[in-house]
């Protein structure tokens, strides 16, 4: 069974960097093609930030995330990273990674297209 475990969250100074990890295990070929990073603020809908095709490493970013976040994949360790250089207070959220094979391919961040989800890691951006 596919399992995803996020790590790297915590309290971060505004303007500081972020590096989140999503360790995937238990997958067999065909279980998924894409891993995405999502985030959710209490009271708001979960939104997709970026995704990566784990076979060809093509990436896609939500417009608001482009240029601020970087998604990458270490296929030796089977870990997907989400990095940012300069966090803002509005980046405070719980961050989730998820795996799936979206029908519309890369760029499809509809939540129901992702079959496997991690438990989330909280990021708090403080002054």
Describe the structure.
A hairpin with a 5-residue loop joins strand 5 (47-53) and strand 6. With 127 residues, the chain is an all-beta fold. The termini are far apart. The protein is built from no helices and eleven strands.
Summarize the structure.
The protein is an all-beta fold and 127 residues long.
Topology:
Elements: E1 3-7, E2 10-13, E3 18-25, E4 34-40, E5 47-53, E6 59-61, E7 69-74, E8 79-84, E9 93-100, E10 114-117, E11 121-126
Parallel strand pairs: 2-11
Antiparallel strand pairs: 1-3, 3-8, 4-5, 4-9, 5-6, 7-8, 9-10, 9-11
Number of helices: 0
Largest sheet: 7 strands, mixed
Query: Strand tally, please?
Result: 11
Query: What is the chain-wise order of helices and strands?
Result: EEEEEEEEEEE
Radius of gyration: 14 Å
The best one-word shape is: globular
Q: Portion of residues in helices?
A: under 10%
Average of per-residue pLDDT values: 95
List keywords for this structure.
0% helix; 127 residues; globular; 4-stranded antiparallel beta sheet; mainly beta; 7-stranded mixed beta sheet
């Amino acid at each position: 069974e596919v399992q995803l475990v996020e790590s790297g969250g915590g309290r971060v100074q505004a303007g500081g960097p972020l590096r989140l990890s999503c360790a995937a295990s238990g997958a067999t070929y065909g279980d998924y093609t894409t891993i995405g990073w999502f985030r959710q603020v209490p009271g708001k809908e979960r939104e997709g930030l970026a995704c990566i095709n784990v076979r060809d490493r093509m990436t896609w970013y939500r417009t608001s995330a482009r240029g601020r976040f970087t998604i990458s994949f270490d296929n030796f360790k089977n870990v997907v990273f989400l990095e940012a250089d300069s966090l803002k207070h509005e980046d405070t959220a719980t961050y989730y990674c998820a795996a799936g094979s979206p029908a519309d391919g890369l760029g499809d961040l509809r939540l129901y297209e992702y079959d496997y989800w991690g438990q989330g890691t909280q990021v708090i951006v403080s002054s």
